[in-house]
Design a protein that fits this description.
Structural class: alpha+beta
CATH topology of the largest domain: BirA Bifunctional Protein, domain 2
CATH superfamily of the largest domain: Bira Bifunctional Protein, Domain 2
Number of strands: 14
Bound molecules: adenosine-5'-triphosphate, biotin
Distance between the termini: 37 Å
Radius of gyration: 18 Å
């Protein structure tokens, strides 16, 4: 199912895959992987994904057909499959590892304990109302054991957790297998959100986090209340006001 294209260096696998989709040369199942990105992208223009050359998994997956109700929520499907894949990879080398230490953090981050190991991006490309494709970008810290750019105490990697040097090919193949299985498994947004809600339950223990919505709305002192069937985040502020947000960034770290 996957056609892997590996590059030593790209500005961003996400921008590369997206440009190929726009030019009409990308195929369903293409995977663009880079051993280093010079301008790795986060969800927002001014935030970068950093990596040390050759140490991490940096890839973008192109899908040209997607279950309609899931198109704008693919980051959740990728997030759930990444949780499964990372738990499996860690369990292989550390049988005592408690899998609930690997957590989904709204909206698209994977944490181990309090540190980020992986981030997901999902960009849908449309021509009018017709879908041209979705590009799912996945960054996983694999063998990098030291971080800079302000990530010293906020990032972790598979190697930092288990002490094992991983083959990037093995990590890629476990993640792509889990992602392929999730594409087969989740046929409705409701079934996906049911599992996402389960993975976000731990966020009920958080007190007083901050939120930034894409329209610039900022709120502080929030409590997590849950998510709706269609993937909105419910939060309550310390005045007791309850609101639902789509695509908001949470600051808990
Ligand atoms: P959201 O969860 O809403 O997407 P975010 O804080 O993850 O918010 P992004 O716009 O996606 O913000 O940007 C990626 C963020 O990931 C950066 O702000 C940076 O702090 C962090 N980051 C960058 N590189 C790494 C890495 N290799 N490991 C862990 N975290 C990283
Ligand atoms: C996030 O942390 O919120 C998202 C980070 C996504 C990073 C990956 S690395 C591969 C792909 N190419 C990019 O430029 N970004 C994504």
């Amino acid at each position: 199912m996957w056609n892997i294209h590996t590059y030593d260096e790209l500005p961003s696998t996400q921008s590369h895959a997206r440009a190929e989709l726009e030019q009409g040369v990308a195929k369903h199942g293409d995977v663009i992987q880079a051993l280093h990105q010079t301008t790795g992208r986060g969800r927002y223009e001014n935030r970068r994904w950093h990596d040390r050359p050759g140490e991490n998994l940096l890839m973008s997956i192109v899908l040209k057909e997607v279950t309609p109700g899931l198109i704008e929520k693919m980051q959740f499907l990728a997030g759930v499959s990444l949780l499964r894949a990372l738990r499996l990879l860690i369990a292989k080398s550390d049988s005592k590892f408690k899998s609930d230490r690997v957590r989904l953090k709204w909206i698209n981050d994977i944490l181990i304990d309090e540190r980020k190991i992986s981030g997901v991006l999902s960009d849908a490309l449309w021509t009018g109302s017709s879908l041209r494709g979705v590009v799912i970008g996945i960054g996983v810290n694999v063998n990098q054991s030291e971080f800079d750019n302000g990530l010293e105490d906020r990032a972790t990697s598979l190697k930092a957790i288990t002490g094992v040097d991983y083959s990037l090919e093995e990590v890629r193949s476990v993640i792509l297998a889990a992602f392929g299985n999730a594409l087969d498994e989740y046929r409705s947004l409701q079934s996906l959100m049911f599992d996402v809600a389960h993975e976000l339950e731990w966020m009920r223990t958080l007190r007083g986090f901050d939120l930034l919505a894409p329209d610039g709305t900022a709120e502080n002192g929030l409590t997590y209340l849950g998510i709706t069937d269609d993937g909105l985040l419910w939060v309550r502020n310390d005045m007791g006001t309850i609101r639902a947000y789509d695509n908001a960034t949470l600051r808990i770290l």
